[in-house]
């Protein structure tokens, strides 16, 4: 029997209502699958960029690439300042502030007060970065990270080390904990030495551990190296000898400068007292940080007499053999008494330097006037900075009154009324040593092209500078009765000048406080180096420059001749013959053995 359409529809409806629960579930499942499919499609297509960004924001971090600070070396490549990799431990206060047990554990590992650490973290709970310990050895930092304390991380850094310690501390200086130059050449050349940090992207887990390095955004650029002019072998000798004299004399301070005559490069520069650049936290007297050879000024005393005599020779009024009467060893100038150590009697101009006569220099100065002397002092560099760029460098004082009184003229002639630095004094004497040519001084090594391009100014005639050099050679000659015989060196001729100046106190010049100086040029026949030694306020019975400073010069200069391999110019004839005979015998022996 054929069913009608109505019957079929009725049966279907009855069947549907009979299984309506199942159909409802299937329909609901179909809608759910459709919704899920639609949502997944939407996430993959329309929201993909948004979701990717959100994921990256939680796992991908941009971290800095630390740049290595440039190396500082001496002229021969000896390291004076180096940077080594270290790690700093830091925490995210937001992650660890509410975990006292973890904070206590961290405090124990670093031997810190748990309460102080917890308080510090709590006070910075709104921040995401707080240093706990800076500049740890990588192995120690890795040990802390291995504890897997949540919120504790490490950062790569560099720490500055100074292999030569206090020997070169005043010149090199130091940088702070953030590797920024604070003193010395570390400060002067900070931009040159400091590198440019880079950036990189990394993927981290929730504990902050780096899972993968994704890419480098900016490559870190290391700082440039700096090659100083000093020779550390000579620096070490100068420092050692200066320190020994400083301790022996119980002095207030002391400085030494060794200058290359031909290039103006500083081969050594040291001061006492010094400091350890690795242990600055215990320094309470910040004057220890000063590079006194550049920053401290003093009245140079009789070392100026060489320029007084040079100015006199320039005027033509005086010659080397012009006679000066210094008897009775004292004279009155404007109600002031000027004295020599003893009555030298009749001297010529050259012997005024040999005996370091205040009376002789005063009479010469009063004859020619103060202006020629001051003019020459200015030409050789006094009253001007040397141009090294060293922080705190002083220019000193070169007086220029509208009218010179007689006493001002007199005292200027033997080194009072003006102030200079040890480096200025070395530069000025290098003019005499180099045939009257003035050139800039340098604390960094100069290459051949830089030396060739040095500005050279003829500020004193070659003839007069040679005459002054010959006069200075008599100062250390015992046969000439010189005032600095202790400055002599075996097998080398020496030229130099002593200086002893009273120290200014609260009520004027102190009778029993002195600065002891010696300036030496060696070898005297053709000077290669100038050495300035100043010992401030030595204690004891001896205080003259020839007694205190000259022996330091002798020891340092002798070492410098060996280090710089400068040939002797004062070998006795019979000893030279004996040396030649030994060389000849050795040569014959080698030929026989062959």
Structural overview:
This protein is α+β, with helices and mostly antiparallel strands. The protein is built from 22 helices and 21 strands. Strands 2, 3, 4, 5 and 10 form a five-stranded mixed beta sheet that branches. A five-stranded antiparallel beta sheet has the order 12-11-21-20-19, with helices on both faces. Strands 1-8-9 form a three-stranded antiparallel beta sheet. Helix 11 runs antiparallel to helix 21 (about 545-565). The radius of gyration is 39 Å and the shape is elongated. The N and C termini lie far apart (about 140 Å). Mean pLDDT is about 85; it is low at about 590-594.
Given the helix and strand composition, which structural class is it?
alpha+beta
Number of helices: 22
Uncertain runs: 589-594
| Global geometry | elongated
Any idea what the radius of gyration is? Answer: 39 Å
- Helix content, binned percent: 25-40%
Largest sheet: 5 strands, mixed
Q: What is the mean pLDDT?
A: 86
- Compute the number of strand runs: 21
- How far apart are the termini? 139 Å
Q: Which band does the percent of strand residues land in? A: 15-25%
């Amino acid at each position: 029997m054929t069913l009608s359409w109505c019957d079929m529809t009725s049966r279907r409806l009855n069947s549907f209502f009979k299984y309506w629960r199942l159909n409802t579930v299937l329909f609901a499942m179909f809608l759910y699958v459709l919704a899920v499919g639609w949502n997944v499609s939407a996430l993959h297509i329309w929201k993909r960029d948004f979701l990717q960004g959100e994921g990256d924001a939680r796992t991908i971090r941009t971290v800095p690439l630390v740049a290595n600070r440039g190396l500082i070396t001496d002229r021969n490549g000896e390291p004076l300042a180096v940077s080594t990799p270290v790690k700093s431990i830091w925490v995210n206060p937001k992650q660890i502030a509410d975990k006292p047990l973890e904070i206590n554990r961290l405090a124990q590992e670093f031997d810190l007060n748990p309460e102080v650490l917890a308080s510090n973290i709590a006070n910075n709970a709104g921040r995401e970065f707080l240093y706990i310990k800076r500049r740890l050895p990588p192995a120690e930092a890795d040990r802390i990270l291995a504890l897997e304390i949540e919120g504790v991380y490490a950062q790569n850094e560099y720490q500055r080390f100074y292999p030569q310690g206090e020997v070169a501390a005043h010149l090199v200086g130091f940088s702070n904990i953030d590797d920024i130059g604070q003193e010395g050449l570390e400060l002067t050349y900070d931009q040159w030495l400091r590198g440019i940090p880079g950036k990189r992207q990394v993927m981290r887990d929730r504990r902050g551990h780096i899972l993968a390095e994704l890419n480098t955004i900016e490559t870190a650029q290391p700082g440039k190296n700096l090659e100083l002019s000093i020779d550390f072998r000579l620096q070490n000798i100068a420092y050692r000898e200066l320190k020994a004299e400083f301790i022996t004399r119980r002095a207030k301070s002391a400085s030494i400068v060794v200058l290359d005559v031909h290039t103006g490069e500083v081969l050594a520069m040291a001061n006492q007292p010094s400091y350890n650049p690795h242990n600055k936290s215990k320094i309470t007297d910040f004057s220890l940080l000063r590079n006194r050879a550049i920053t401290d000024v003093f009245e140079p005393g009789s070392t100026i007499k060489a320029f007084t005599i040079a100015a006199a020779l320039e005027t033509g009024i005086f010659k080397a053999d012009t006679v000066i009467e210094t008897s009775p060893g004292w004279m009155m100038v404007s109600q002031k008494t000027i004295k020599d150590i003893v009555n030298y009697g009749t001297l010529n101009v050259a012997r005024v330097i040999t005996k370091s006569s205040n009376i002789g220099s005063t009479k010469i100065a009063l004859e020619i006037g103060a202006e020629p002397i001051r003019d020459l002092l200015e030409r050789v560099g006094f009253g001007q900075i040397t141009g090294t760029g060293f922080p705190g460098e002083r220019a000193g004082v070169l007086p220029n009154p509208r009218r010179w009184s007689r006493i001002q003229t007199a005292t200027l002639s033997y080194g009072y009324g003006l102030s200079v630095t040890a480096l200025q004094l070395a530069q000025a004497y290098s003019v005499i040593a180099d045939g009257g040519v003035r050139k800039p001084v340098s604390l960094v090594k100069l290459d051949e092209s830089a030396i060739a391009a040095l500005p050279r100014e003829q500020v004193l005639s070659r003839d007069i500078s040679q005459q002054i050099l010959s006069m200075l050679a008599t100062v250390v000659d015992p046969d000439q009765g010189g005032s600095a015989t202790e400055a002599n060196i075996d097998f080398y001729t020496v030229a130099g000048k002593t200086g002893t100046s009273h120290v200014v106190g609260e009520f004027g010049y102190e009778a029993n406080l002195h600065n002891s100086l010696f300036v030496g040029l060696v070898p005297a026949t053709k000077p290669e180096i100038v050495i300035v030694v100043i010992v401030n306020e030595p204690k004891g019975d001896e205080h003259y420059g020839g007694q205190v400073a000259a022996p330091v010069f002798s020891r340092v200069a002798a070492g410098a001749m060996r280090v710089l391999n400068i040939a002797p110019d004062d070998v006795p004839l019979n000893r030279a013959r004996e040396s030649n005979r030994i060389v000849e015998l050795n040569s014959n022996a080698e030929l026989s053995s062959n």
